[in-house]
Write a structure and sequence with these properties.
By secondary structure, the chain is an alpha+beta fold. The protein folds into two domains: about 55 residues, no CATH class; about 70 residues, no CATH class. The protein contains four helices and three strands. The chain has a three-stranded mixed β-sheet with strand order 1-2-3. The longest helix has 19 residues. The radius of gyration is 21 Å and the shape is elongated. The two termini are about 35 Å apart. Its main location: membrane. It comes from Xanthomonas perforans. InterPro entries: LPG_synthase_C (IPR024320), PG_lysyltransferase (IPR051211). Keywords: Cell membrane, Membrane, Transmembrane, Transmembrane helix.
């Protein structure tokens, strides 16, 4: 059939699906169960990461537990302001950053390639200073 797929990766003792299956609902539900069978066969825990509400009942029916891990930050830019009491902490952080040399620019998609090398340098410097590593599973990386 090949009418759907699951994006997955083995990590430690888990088989992790990045999001819900892709495909028509009847195919996606079957893929969820197939994914579970494959994880069981491999002796791994099935994990579905960053899923929507559409298939919650299917996940619950197979005995999985829904765990909220965070929120996706979506800021409606139209009408956004730093003014007012509710934005005092954000305004103070912005002013501190400006005093420290922070700047902010919005780029058009065609401008991104030109600044990626510099952003990569900044990222590498930050990682060295923090003795850290890139956080790239669901956030992307350089």
């Amino acid at each position: 059939q090949r009418r759907g797929f699951v994006m997955m990766q083995r990590y430690g003792g888990s088989l992790i699906s990045m999001g819900d299956p892709v495909g028509p609902p009847e195919v996606a539900r079957a893929l969820i169960w197939r994914f579970r069978e494959e994880a069981d066969h491999m002796g791994l825990r099935p994990v579905f990461y960053q899923v929507g509400e559409k298939y919650w009942q299917t996940y619950l029916d197979m005995g999985l537990t829904l765990v909220k891990l965070g929120e996706e930050a979506i800021v409606p830019l139209e009408g956004f302001t730093l003014e007012g009491r509710d934005r005092a902490d954000l305004r103070q952080a912005w002013n501190r950053g400006k005093r420290g040399g922070l700047t902010f620019r919005m780029l058009q998609p065609e401008q991104v390639d030109a600044v990626l090398p510099r952003l990569s340098e900044v990222s590498e410097q930050w990682l060295e200073e923090k003795s850290g590593e890139e956080k790239g599973f669901s956030l992307g990386s350089f």
